[in-house]
Every structure is written in C-alpha cells, then in structure tokens.
C-alpha cells in the first residue's frame, strides 16, 4: 500500500464525484482561490479532468481515499456529489477509517432527507460532522454560482461558511447560501425547492397550453409573450428558458418544442414533497397536482385512445381577437403570478410544519434568499419573500404579508377569468385550478367539513366536536361526540387515530 506520509496537506476541501456538476463545482472553487482535491471511483476520470478542464488550476487529482485524506488540511472537509442512496453510504464507509473527530462529510447530492437524518445521527456518534446540502442551479450554476442549502451538524458551518458563500450565486451582493438548520434540514429545503420547481413548470405549461389551444398563438407568439413577462413580475429563470425554448427552431426551421414527445419524466423529489405534505397533513395541493400531471402525461398511449372516444367542447377560432388579445395575455399573466404565489405559500407552510414536527429551528429569510439566485426557481419576487420573513420572522403565512395579500387581490379577476376559459373550452388546468381552490378554501372561515364529520360519525362512529356557539348540555364543548343517527346504532364510538 502506498504511503503518503511525505505529503504536506494543502487542500481546503475534497470533492468526490466527477460528473458535470462535480467538475464544475471544483472549477468554481478553484476560481475563488481554494485548493480542491478531486477524486472519482473511476480514476481515469480524474486524469482526464486534470489534463483538460482542471489543467493549471489549484486542483489536486488523487487515485485513492488515503491519498485524498493525506492532501487535506484539518478539519478535513469532504464533499460527495454522487448518486443518492447506496453510493453515499458506500463512500462514507470508505472514508470513516481515515477520518478524525471533527472532520466534515458533506453530501451535496439529491438525497432524501430521512437518509440525511440517519447519517447525521450515525456520524455524530462517531464524532464526525455531517452536512447535507442542497445544490441547485444545474451545470451553469455549479460552474459560476449555485444556490447552496446546507444543514446538519452546526459545528461544521464555521469551517464551511467561507467556501460555500464564496462559490455561491449572489443576489444584490448577498450570497445565496446560509445555514438552514439541523440534521436533514438542508436536504429537506432542497426537496421543497424541487417540489416548487415542479409546480412552477406545470403552471408555465398550462399557460402555454391555453395560449396555444384557446388563443391559437404560434410558438413564436407565445415565446414573445414569455419574453414580455420576463421583464415584469414574473421575471425568473424558468420564464426566461421557456422564452428561449419556444423561440428555438430545429434545422428545418420549425419549432423544436413541437417535435418533443409530451410525456414528462421525474426523478422523485416532487413526489417526496407531496408524500411528506400528506404525512404532515399540510394542503400542498399545487405540488401534488404537478406530480400527478406528469403521471397523466406518461400514459400517452391511453390518452391517445381516449382522445378518439371521449368528447369535449369544441374550441372555435376567434376567441382571442386583436381587440381583446392584450387583456387575454394580461389576465393569463395574473393567473400565473397568483398561482405562483400560492405555490410558494404552500411550500413555506410545509417548511413551517416540518420545523414543528422534526424540532428544527429553520432560517426562513435565509431560505428565501438562497432561492433568489443560482437555483432553478430563482425569481424576482423571492426578494419580497426574503423581505417578508426579515420583517416578521415568525410570519404565519405569506398571504398575511401586505405585499402578497395585495398582489393576490389585484390578480384575482384575471385569475378567475383565465380558469373560466380553460373550463369552458376543456383545457386541463390542474395547477391553476388547485391554486385558486386552495386560496378560496384558505380564506373561508367555514368549510363543508361539518357535513363530512357527520358522515364519518354516521357510518363509522368516528365522532365530531361541536362549534363553540352551538355547545349545549347534550353537545358539550371540546368533547368527542357520537350520535346514534338512525336509532338503530349503539352509543360506542370508534377509536380516534390518524392514518
């Protein structure tokens, strides 16, 4: 076995995993004056990287874990950018025999937060500081400034802060990176980020579909609408790339987007968000609909068959005319803006509930700031979310902030008119629709769940509680009440449980 005792540790941190994201993050760090150790399981990738992109930079290529360790200054900082799941645990197990107490392992992959909770606890027992960090921004973000969302063992943060905040994207001079919270909080926030990304993308697709099918706009016309929207309240990365996609022609001069199969893929983070929302009992409906919309898109063969058998309303020409075109586009913009606000509102409601459920103290203003630049959901209105949480750190709901309350009120008329168009002409708008349904439900002091509880008690003796103003001797306040609705049932109620 090779000895590396002669090596003088000079590297600031190591990165394992030389796919595009890993390589670009290393190059980014080297550009900011850090010395980085690069390692990959297939070591030939290390040599190729050193001979090409990394040539002449402060990057040390190594061929083994012992060599990696020998080059690192203490406390050793080692970042993993490998496939989530088994590969992360495998590398951690390879590293452990060579680490000392106080060394730091950072998982920068798309790991599920329960795995990060487990790794945090296991490594804490061994004296190793674990950090699970969301990394967003794709290839370009990794190279020139990603959004970084670190959480885990707080003792690690002073040793990572300078590196992470140096290489992160900047928004108004502030780094899009700060400490999120303990255990798996960093990966939790990245999961919610990805869920919101699912919602944003679905909303944009529904706006595109309405313009294409109802207004009969060409792809170029739709691209120009997105270009205009990108100069206003909807200014964001996803609006920007949608503009570019719609204006992009194939070699034959026709829009490339029209040649792409309408079946969406997914890697699971949106599903994780929706499942966690159900587990915590939070109405994160828009992300759920976005996930289901991808599932519906995937059953293409069945949809094609259904299109020949099932009827809907015809969509005549002339619904949108030169005279009402501007109003139609403005209404659609307001529908998209309001629905986007609801998506972020639901996301932060979920984060709030997770903090309670898992005993985390989360940094909400920092989370909004992290998403302002570098990441996929970056948008101009995230500055207002940051501002809202800085002004009121314990803000219960974004809709209670005056900026967002006013924005929703202003958008309502166009939002509702857009949905009427979709319903009238049979255009599916699951994300737009659920956003408005949530808003109308959330602002309702009373919902029809009183009838639902009566039904549950009628067929299953599941009990109900009575309204304070309706309490009486036979309907006592605060108690679980069961009624013998038919005169034939008993007086024994079912056990109360949450499934």
Can you offer a commentary on this structure?
The chain is α/β, with parallel strands linked by helices and 499 residues long. It has 3 domains: 13-183, NAD(P)-binding Rossmann-like Domain (Rossmann fold, 3-Layer(aba) Sandwich), CATH 3.40.50.720; 190-442, Orthogonal Bundle (N-(1-d-carboxylethyl)-l-norvaline Dehydrogenase, domain 2), CATH 1.10.1040.10; 454-499, Up-down Bundle (Single alpha-helices involved in coiled-coils or other helix-helix interfaces), CATH 1.20.5.320. It contains 19 helices and 9 strands. The protein has helices spanning 20-31, 44-51, 65-70, 86-95, 113-125, 138-144, 157-167, 185-213, 219-229, 237-246, 269-280, 285-298, 300-309, 325-358, 364-370, 382-391, 402-424, 430-442, 449-460; strands spanning 13-16, 36-39, 59-61, 77-80, 104-107, 129-136, 147-152, 170-171, 174-175. The strands form 2 sheets. The chain has a 7-stranded mixed beta sheet, with helices on both faces. Helix 14 (325-358) packs across helix 18. The longest helix has 34 residues, at 325-358. The radius of gyration is 26 Å and the shape is globular. The termini are far apart. The relative contact order is 0.09. The mean pLDDT is 94. It is an enzyme of class 1 (oxidoreductase). NADP(+) binds at residues 17-22, 40-42, 82-84, 110. InterPro entries: 6-PGluconate_DH-like_C_sf, 6PGD_dom2, 6PGDH_C, 6PGDH_Gnd/GntZ, 6PGDH_NADP-bd, 6PGdom_BS, NAD(P)-bd_dom_sf, Pgluconate_DH.
């Amino acid at each position: 076995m090779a000895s590396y005792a002669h090596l003088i540790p000079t590297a600031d941190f190591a990165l394992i995993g030389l796919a595009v994201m890993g390589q670009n993050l290393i190059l980014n760090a080297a550009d900011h004056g850090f010395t980085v150790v690069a390692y990959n399981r297939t070591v030939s990738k290390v040599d190729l990287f050193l001979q090409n992109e990394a040539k002449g930079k402060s990057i040390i290529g190594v061929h083994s874990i012992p060599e990696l360790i020998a080059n690192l200054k203490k406390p050793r900082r080692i970042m993993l950018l490998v496939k989530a799941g088994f590969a992360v645990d495998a590398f951690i197990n390879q590293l452990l025999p060579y680490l000392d107490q106080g060394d730091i392992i950072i998982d920068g992959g798309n790991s599920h937060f329960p795995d990060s909770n487990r790794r945090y606890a296991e490594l804490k027992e061994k004296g190793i500081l674990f950090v699970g960090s969301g990394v967003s921004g794709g290839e370009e973000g990794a190279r020139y400034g990603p959004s970084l969302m670190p959480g885990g063992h707080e003792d690690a943060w002073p040793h990572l802060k300078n590196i992470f905040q140096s290489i992160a994207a900047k928004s108004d001079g502030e780094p899009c990176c700060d400490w999120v919270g303990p255990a798996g909080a960093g990966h939790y926030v990245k999961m919610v980020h990805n869920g919101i990304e699912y919602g944003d993308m679905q909303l944009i697709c529904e706006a595109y579909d309405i313009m294409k099918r109802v207004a009969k706009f060409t792809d170029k016309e739709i691209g120009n609408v997105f270009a205009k929207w990108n100069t206003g309240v909807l200014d964001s990365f996803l609006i920007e790339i949608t503009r570019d996609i719609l204006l992009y022609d194939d070699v034959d001069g026709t829009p490339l987007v029209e040649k792409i199969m309408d079946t969406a893929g997914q890697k699971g983070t949106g599903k994780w968000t929706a499942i966690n929302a159900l587990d915590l009992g939070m109405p994160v409906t828009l992300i759920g609909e976005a996930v289901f919309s991808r599932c519906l898109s995937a059953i293409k063969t069945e949809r094609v068959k259904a299109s020949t058998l099932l009827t809907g309303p015809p969509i005549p020409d002339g619904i949108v005319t030169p005279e009402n075109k501007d109003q139609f586009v403005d209404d659609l913009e307001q529908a998209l803006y309001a629905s986007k606000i609801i998506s972020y509102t639901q996301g932060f409601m979920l984060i709030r509930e997770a903090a309670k459920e898992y005993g985390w103290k989360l940094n909400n203003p920092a989370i909004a700031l992290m998403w302002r630049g570098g990441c996929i959901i970056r948008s101009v209105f995230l500055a207002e979310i940051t501002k809202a949480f800085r002004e009121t750190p314990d803000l219960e709901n974004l809709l209670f902030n005056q900026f967002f309350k006013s924005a929703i009120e202003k958008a309502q008329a166009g939002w509702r008119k857009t949905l009427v168009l979709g319903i009238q002409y049979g255009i599916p708008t699951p994300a737009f629709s659920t956003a408005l349904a949530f808003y109308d439900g959330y602002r309702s002091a009373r919902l029809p769940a009183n009838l639902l509880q009566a039904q549950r008690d009628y067929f299953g003796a599941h009990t109900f509680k009575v309204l304070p103003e309706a309490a009486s001797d036979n309907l006592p306040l605060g108690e679980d009440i069961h009624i013998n609705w038919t005169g034939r049932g008993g007086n024994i109620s079912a056990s109360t449980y949450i499934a």
